[in-house]
Amino acid sequence: MLKKRVITGLWGIPLLIAAIWFGEPLFTILLVVWGALAALEFYRLVTAAKVPPLTYFGLAWTVFFIASRNSQVVSFLQPYLSESQLAPLLITLAVMLPLIWRLLRPRKVEAFASWAWTIAGILYIGWLLGYLVALRDLDSNRTWQSWVFFALFTTFASDTAAFFAGRALGRHHLAPRISPGKTWEGAIAGVVGAIIVSLLFTIPSPVSLPLSYGQAIILGLLVSIFGQLGDLVESLLKRNMGVKDSGRLLPGHGGALDRIDSVVFAGVVVYYYVIWAMH
């Protein structure tokens, strides 16, 4: 298990770094593909629970939500839609079209439960993951890569520290009814790991950020807390669906959804921190 986890990280992390470093459209394409895979796993879990969602519609709208946060896509649509109109239109259609489809093609399924799960997948994965794409447009000084690196690698540090400390030192369960393997010792180690990596971004380097030590500590703390909450949310989903992992795409890690459960919450935190505290 641990060996597979390490091997997957050795090939996966360089790919991620390359996508972020070389920028668009590679980064958005990577997130679109990953989001689509995660959404597919999400809808498969729901289908297994005998509430079949509108999977193809959910996949399409997940892709639309992620891609719509890319400034190049927005510029292409500019003659037809303004940036302020795009998100409300996508949300409105996401709500209305599945209801109309269920109305026109009634089946012996729980129609409103199916509709709700379809919307849930779109918002949980498409809308939240899109914040990582939106990070690139927050800074005109080409430091957007650094903010994305920050969001991802502080989250990875939190997850990794929590995993190893929990295995070695874990004694007190964090949320036994949701995820029996998570412990308070692991959670605290996750916070420490995120703060350490966060502080590394204050050191002059090609990816350094204009953060004071205090800001780095606060942001690292927030990323770890919300990342761990995101992890627990997905654990709650899997427990409700009666599965251990969302899929088998990544040996040692589970599925695509398992690898972004923390990231989707952490990306939102970093995005709004940059807006409110750095501008």
Could you provide a short overview of the structure?
The protein is an all-alpha fold and 279 residues long. It has helices spanning 2-22, 26-48, 55-67, 71-77, 83-104, 111-134, 144-169, 184-200, 213-241, 256-277, and strands at residues 173-175, 179-183.
Structural write-up:
It is a single chain. With 279 residues, the protein is mostly helical. It is 73% helix and 3% strand. The protein is globular and about 60 Å long. It has ten helices and two strands, in the order H-H-H-H-H-H-H-E-E-H-H-H. Helix 2 runs antiparallel to helix 3 and helix 9 runs antiparallel to helix 10. The mean pLDDT is 88. It has a two-stranded antiparallel sheet with strand order 1-2.
Q: What are its keywords?
A:
279 residues; mainly alpha; two-stranded antiparallel sheet; 2 strands; globular
List the helices and strands and how they pair.
Blueprint: H1 2-22, H2 26-48, H3 55-67, H4 71-77, H5 83-104, H6 111-134, H7 144-169, E1 173-175, E2 179-183, H8 184-200, H9 213-241, H10 256-277
Antiparallel strand pairs: 1-2
Please state the average pLDDT score.
Answer: 88
Structural class: mainly alpha
SSE pattern, N- to C-terminal = HHHHHHHEEHHH
| Amount of helix | over 70%
Count of discrete alpha- or pi-helical segments spanning 4 or more residues? 10
Q: Going across the biggest sheet, name each strand in turn.
A: 1-2
Major sheet: size, sense and barrel closure?
2 strands, antiparallel
Principal-axis shape equals: globular
Strand content: under 5%
